[in-house]
TrEMBL record:
<protein>
    <submittedName>
        <fullName>Class I SAM-dependent methyltransferase</fullName>
        <ecNumber>2.1.1.222</ecNumber>
        <ecNumber>2.1.1.64</ecNumber>
    </submittedName>
</protein>
<dbReference type="GO" id="GO:0061542">
    <property type="term" value="F:3-demethylubiquinol 3-O-methyltransferase activity"/>
</dbReference>
<dbReference type="InterPro" id="IPR029063">
    <property type="entry name" value="SAM-dependent_MTases_sf"/>
</dbReference>
<dbReference type="Pfam" id="PF13489">
    <property type="entry name" value="Methyltransf_23"/>
</dbReference>
<keyword id="KW-0489">Methyltransferase</keyword>
<dbReference type="GO" id="GO:0102208">
    <property type="term" value="F:2-polyprenyl-6-hydroxyphenol methylase activity"/>
</dbReference>
<dbReference type="GO" id="GO:0032259">
    <property type="term" value="P:methylation"/>
</dbReference>
<dbReference type="InterPro" id="IPR050508">
    <property type="entry name" value="Methyltransf_Superfamily"/>
</dbReference>
<keyword id="KW-0808">Transferase</keyword>
Length: 244
């Protein structure tokens, strides 16, 4: 077991702690950016507005930026600490929330939303997708990524009675599973559950792909990359949907 100290008083305190990881692997970011670039097409018809909601330290958006040249990329996060770091990487980074007062954007003002490794941290994912749907124009693109509960190694771990990777039972430490970092995952999805959830929230699912997980031990990474060919077995789920 690995512990973190001091324990958070509230969930917000946990995410405002600079020691909590706010970035994910570049391989996932590049794959997701390529999916979005294909969906948007060239910027010859004018720049499109892309919101990276839950941008964290801005590293994912910075990785995506070369694939989205000519488009307007705006980072959004509610954590002031994360925004301070994001502003060193992005030309635009603003504070906004998916619940409460909502995002600081007009209805239908965004052409696309990047929603990377955020869904699993939310208390109310339904309200979050409602707010994303509000700011997207009709036909706008949602590029969502989240860990896969049914990743190939998690299936084996469950059979052995071991807590799956990505799942967490405490904000103070890791219990019953491999790994050492507490990152605050509250919800996990299989490929089927993610498709159904996004469709029920007013989106049309276009494509589902897989991505590797940067935390997989080096010796197992070739297998992890192979699993991407079958998204229901992949470490990370990459979903492209459009606002209905």
């Amino acid at each position: 077991m690995t512990t973190t100290a001091p324990p958070p008083r509230e969930l917000r305190d946990f995410y405002e702690n600079p020691a909590v990881p706010v970035a994910s692997g570049p391989s996932r970011s590049r794959r997701q950016a390529r999916m979005l670039a294909r969906a948007l097409g060239p910027a010859g018809g004018g720049p499109r507005t892309v919101l990276d909601i839950g941008c964290g330290d801005g590293s994912a958006a910075a990785t995506a930026a070369p694939f989205l040249r000519g488009h307007r990329l705006i980072g959004v996060d509610w954590s002031q600490d994360a925004l301070a770091r994001a502003r060193t990487r992005l030309p635009y980074a603003v504070r906004g929330e998916l619940t409460g007062g909502g995002l600081p954007f007009a209805a239908g003002s965004a052409d696309a939303v990047l929603f990377s490794e955020v869904l699993e941290h939310l208390v109310d994912p339904d309200a979050a997708l409602d707010e994303i749907r509000r700011v997207l124009r009709p036909g706008g693109h949602l590029m969502l990524s989240t860990p896969n509960l049914a990743a190939w190694y998690n299936r084996g771990l469950l059979l052995a009675g071991v807590q799956p990777v990505f799942s967490e039972v405490s904000l103070r430490g890791i219990h019953g599973r491999p790994g050492s970092e507490v990152v605050g995952h509250l919800r996990l999805y299989t490929a089927r559950a993610l498709r159904e959830f996004v469709a029920a929230s007013g989106f049309t699912v276009v494509r589902l792909e897989g991505a590797p997980f940067h935390g997989v031990p080096r010796v197992l990474r070739p297998l992890d990359r192979l699993a991407c060919a079958r998204p229901p077995l992949a470490s990370i789920l990459l979903l492209h949907a459009r606002r209905t």
